[in-house]
């Protein structure tokens, strides 16, 4: 949050429209598959609670390592991935690149 407070121009009108669209998508009764990748179990727990309060038709997968995330991504047709940038000694950005392959 400090980053956003220190960079007031980071959110633009188009960003708000994008987030509004995302909120509408989550409120729809479509089957979404979301992967939460974070080495902090508390963070995953709370994010999962927030998502579940939005819509019960969402399938949520969890991974605490990059290897687990890659295996889940290969097995499931995911709609969205929440990826931690720093997973212990692993790099979440490189993990996204591996998943995209």
In a nutshell, what does this entry contain?
By secondary structure, the chain is α/β, with parallel strands linked by helices.
Q: What's the structural blueprint in terms of helices and strands?
A:
Blueprint: H1 2-6, H2 13-27, E1 32-37, H3 41-54, E2 58-63, H4 66-75, E3 80-83, E4 86-87, E5 90-91, H5 92-100
Parallel strand pairs: 1-2, 1-3
Antiparallel strand pairs: 4-5
Features:
alpha/beta, 3-stranded parallel beta sheet, two-stranded antiparallel ribbon, 5 strands
Would you give an account of this structure?
The structure is a single chain. The protein has helices at residues 2-6, 13-27, 41-54, 66-75, 92-100, and strands spanning 32-37, 58-63, 80-83, 86-87, 90-91. It has 5 helices and 5 strands. Helix content is 52%, strand content 20%. The longest helix is centred in the N-terminal third of the chain and has 15 residues, at 13-27. Strand 4 and strand 5 form a beta hairpin. With 101 residues, the protein is of the alpha/beta class. Mean pLDDT is 77; it is low at 7-29. It starts with a helix and ends with a helix. It has one domain (29-100): Response regulator (Rossmann fold). The chain is globular, with a radius of gyration of 15 Å.
